[in-house]
């Protein structure tokens, strides 16, 4: 890989078979260019270690240490191994590597409980000697509480608990639910079914609150009653599908919001059993972390999971370089992919 000082716009242009003008335009975010081309240019520039003057100035303005500072080693605690965790890990690792640092993931073993066993696990994995700790979403709240007490710099990739003194960042699921409700409302839907858990995680509770707030704001009476929706735990999948099937076959609802990743496909399964078609019989919005390969044209808000990981890395380095700065709570709002699973209802 060329050293950073050897990489120029011409290097990137030659590498991709583009003009310098096109490369410069892509890196400056100017309009009038295919998004695929812009992403290709940005990705290759990152691989080569090239940054524009504006990006260098941004690092300085954000008080993020220069690439040539002391290399540091960070840990990231993960519950389970899913694409959801892969996206978080990928974002943090890419950004840290760009800035000259490293990241090692730690998969928390199943069955670990509060008490001496958990602290022994922390000691065994040298977490007390990490330069900083990234706490991912889906960590049990009891474990998160203990980890937040550790005397190392931390960034929480989640909504923060009340009164928590920690830098945090999250893809804004409350905004995503509100945006989804707006989309359905403007397509004529007034009877919207909420079809995911509302417990036990903080993010689940905030999704449900956002749904109720949106229903009240839009004047959709009766939608705030939990009993009207499919919000029981999905662990018993048979019972959950029976409950969902009963709601869908009643004909009372014209649209469904699946507000937790990987649950929308179960709504497709229920619809298939009932011989209902989407969006002819009901519209569907799924909140997926990335495009579902089986249903690529599903309408969905963009959840910026990988981007949150990148920003988390910057928050960590900023905290280490500036320990007296006030804590930040950052939310990244994504756009909305219209897809083909929303039908317009004419009044």
Defining key terms:
347 residues, 434 Repressor (Amino-terminal Domain), Rossmann fold, 3 domains, 12 helices, 41% helix, transcription regulation, LacI/GalR-like_sensor, transcription cis-regulatory region binding
Kindly describe this structure.
With 347 residues, this protein is of the alpha/beta class. It folds into 3 domains: 4-50, lambda repressor-like DNA-binding domains (434 Repressor (Amino-terminal Domain), Orthogonal Bundle), CATH 1.10.260; 73-171 and 305-332, Response regulator (Rossmann fold, 3-Layer(aba) Sandwich), CATH 3.40.50.2300; 173-302, Response regulator (Rossmann fold). Helix content is 41%, strand content 12%. The protein has 12 helices and 11 strands. The strands form 3 sheets. The chain has a 6-stranded parallel sheet, covered by helices on one side. Strands 6-7-8 form a 3-stranded parallel sheet, covered by helices on one side. The chain has a two-stranded antiparallel ribbon with strand order 9-11. The protein is globular, with a radius of gyration of 23 Å. The protein starts with 8 loop residues before the first helix and ends in a 10-residue tail after the last strand. One of its GO terms (molecular function) is DNA-binding transcription factor activity.
Offer a concise description of the structure.
This protein has helices at 9-16, 20-27, 35-48, 53-61, 83-98, 116-124, 141-147, 173-186, 202-217, 237-249, 264-273, 305-321; strands at 73-78, 102-107, 133-135, 154-156, 167-171, 192-194, 255-258, 283-286, 300-301, 329-332, 336-337. The protein is built from twelve helices and eleven strands.
């Amino acid at each position: 890989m060329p050293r950073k000082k050897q990489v120029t716009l011409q290097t990137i242009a030659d590498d991709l078979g583009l003009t310098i003008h096109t490369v410069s335009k892509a890196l400056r975010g100017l309009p009038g260019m295919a998004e695929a081309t812009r992403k290709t240019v940005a990705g290759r520039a990152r691989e080569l270690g090239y940054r524009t003057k504006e990006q260098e100035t941004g690092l300085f303005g954000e008080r993020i240490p220069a690439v040539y500072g002391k290399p540091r080693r960070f840990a990231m605690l993960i519950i389970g191994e899913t694409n959801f965790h892969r996206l978080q890990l990928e974002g943090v690792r890419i950004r840290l590597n760009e800035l000259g640092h490293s990241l090692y993931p730690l998969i928390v073993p199943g069955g670990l409980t509060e008490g001496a066993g958990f602290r022994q696990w922390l000691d065994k994995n040298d977490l007390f000697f990490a330069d900083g700790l990234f706490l991912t979403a889906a960590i049990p709240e009891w474990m998160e509480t203990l980890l937040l007490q550790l005397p190392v710099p931390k960034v929480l990739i989640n909504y923060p608990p009340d009164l928590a003194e920690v830098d945090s960042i999250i893809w804004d699921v409350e905004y995503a639910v509100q945006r989804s409700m707006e989309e359905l409302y403007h397509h004529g839907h007034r009877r919207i079914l909420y079809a995911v858990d509302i417990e036990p995680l903080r993010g689940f509770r905030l999704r449900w609150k956002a749904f109720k707030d949106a229903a009240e704001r839009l004047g959709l009476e009766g939608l705030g009653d939990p009993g009207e929706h499919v919000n029981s735990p999905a662990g018993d999948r048979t019972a959950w599908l029976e409950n969902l099937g009963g709601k869908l076959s009643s004909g009372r609802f014209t649209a469904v919001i699946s507000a937790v990743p990987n649950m929308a496909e179960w709504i497709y399964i229920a619809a298939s059993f009932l011989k209902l078609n989407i969006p002819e019989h009901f519209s569907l919005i799924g909140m997926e972390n990335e495009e579902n390969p089986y249903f690529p044209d599903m309408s969905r808000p963009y959840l910026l999971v990988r981007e949150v990981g990148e920003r988390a890395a910057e928050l960590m380095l900023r905290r280490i370089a500036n320990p007296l700065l006030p804590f930040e709570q950052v939310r990244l709002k994504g756009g909305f992919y219209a897809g083909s699973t929303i039908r317009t209802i004419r009044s």
